[in-house]
Structure formats: structure tokens, C-alpha cells
Amino acid sequence: MARIIGGLGTTHVPSIGKAIAERKQNDPYWKPFFDGFHFVHRWLAREKPDVAVVFYNDHGLNFFLDKLPTFAVGAANEYRNEDEGWGIPVSKSAAGIPNLSWHLIERLVADEFDVTICQDMLVDHAVTIPLSLMWPGEAPWPVRIVPVSINTVQHPLPSAARCFKLGQSIGRAIDTYEENLKVLVIGTGGLSHQLDGERAGFINKAFDQLCMDRLTNDPESLTRYSIPEIVEQAGAQGVEFLNWIAMRGALTGKVIEVHRNYHIPISNTAAATMVFDNQPAVLRGQHAA
């Protein structure tokens, strides 16, 4: 059976891709952020996931304001990256795993989620930058992916509670997949930031830290925030935290935070990284004993 080994949340700011391309990891501006991935690299080398389910938000690459699904799931053999004009290099393609994608889609529909099924899907910096941070310099990336896009652009947005339930449904589906796979669940984006308007440059460190604490200890309490409340506390683009909430919902075992890094600012964004171990039920019982 497939097993969820853990979850990882991280930012996907486009300027990170440019910093990687220009080898600025040790520059004073960037070093505190990139140093936060040393633990991630060791953890991944030890756990060796086979698959990554990635909750992210599309930035107009696949969907635009004329047609924008609330939830979309990739079911392709390959996910190509195309440059969005941020001056970052086009990344290599990510391999898909269609059989697992279809299994997740079928279970989501059974749980009454009306998802858009994408058998041809591009991926933008919200997917490729996290993969580049997690496996720097590796070609190809050592995991196959299932991308799950959440609308954080065009209101009305899905609620935090709905995104948490989406993650829970996907977590249950992974647990019933019969192939022996180690699955990592990733949530990308944020944390607090606003890119335009009167509050451009807005960052709320206190709210970011509260959200990270609650992801570990009381994730369901985050589902009580409405979308307007999240925008007020985290900025217009801070709603990308919905991807983190979905990631946390997908963790089905005993969840233990094993790493956290927080650094501000990176291009007017609060950049954070968190890693969670997900101990399966059998280990949870042994631990309790």
C-alpha cells in the first residue's frame, strides 16, 4: 500500500528561481532562506519519497479569469514548465503518475468534490521552484508528481475548511492506493504578502507564526478563518496559505513537526518552510504503547 511519509510547506516566490540561476544562495539577502533547506535535503535523502502530491495555485499558465476551476488535478504523464516572464529559466519537465492521479480523482469525486481533470497540464513556478529547492541540481527530479491546483486568484475562493477537507480526502485516497509508494505531500505559496494596492509590501509576522504553530498543533482551528479574514491578516496574496492547509489535511497519521524556517522579506513576501513527519497508524499504536 502507498504510505504518506510526511508533508512540506514552502514558498514559491519567482525571484528564488533567479537567485538559484545566479548562484546567490550564500548572498546575505538569500542565505537565511536557503540555509533553511539544509535539513530538508537531509530529510529527503533519508526518506526517499517516490511521489509528491503538490497543492499549489496556478498563476495564469493553465487557467485565466475567463475559465478558472476551484480545484484541478493533473492526470498527465509529464508536466512541462513554461516561462511566465519573470526572467527565470524554464525548468525541466516533471514526470507524472497517471494511475495514482486517477485514483485520487475518483476518490475526490466520490467525496463530492467537483474537480477539473487535466490530462494535459503545464506547471509554473509554484511547482518548479519548490522542487528545485528540495532537490537542487538533480536532473531529472527523483519524484513523480500529482499537481493539485487550488484557486487563490479569482473570488469566490474555496474556504479554508473546504481546502482542509480536500486534503483529507486526498490523504484517505493515498492510504488506499495499492502500489507500494512513499508519498510526500507539498503545499506551496506565501506566507503573508500583498503585491499591489495600498497595502503592497504588507507582511504580518505574528499571524504567520500563529498559522505555523496551529498547523502543527491545531490545524482545524485554521479552518474557522473566512477568506476576508485571511486577506485582512495575511494580505491579498496571503490566501496562498490555503495550499498549506490542504497539505496539512492530507496527513493521516501522527503528525510531528521536525523543521521550521521563517525569513522576511524575500521580494516583499514572508518566506517559510516547514517539514512534518507523518507516522502511519501501526507506528502510532506502537508509539502509544
Explain what the structure shows.
The protein is α/β, with parallel strands linked by helices. It has one domain: 3-Layer(aba) Sandwich (Protocatechuate 4,5-dioxygenase, Chain B), CATH 3.40.830. The chain has helices spanning 14-21, 31-35, 38-47, 98-110, 125-134, 160-175, 205-217, 227-234, 241-249, 281-288; strands at residues 3-10, 51-56, 71-74, 78-81, 94-95, 116-118, 122-123, 144-150, 182-188, 254-266, 269-279. α6 runs parallel beside α9. The protein is globular, with a radius of gyration of 17 Å. It starts with a strand and ends with a helix. Residues 283-289 have low confidence and may be disordered.
Compile the SSE list and pairings:
Blueprint: E1 3-10, H1 14-21, H2 31-35, H3 38-47, E2 51-56, E3 71-74, E4 78-81, E5 94-95, H4 98-110, E6 116-118, E7 122-123, H5 125-134, E8 144-150, H6 160-175, E9 182-188, H7 205-217, H8 227-234, H9 241-249, E10 254-266, E11 269-279, H10 281-288
Parallel strand pairs: 1-9, 2-8, 2-9, 3-6, 4-7
Antiparallel strand pairs: 1-11, 3-8, 4-5, 10-11
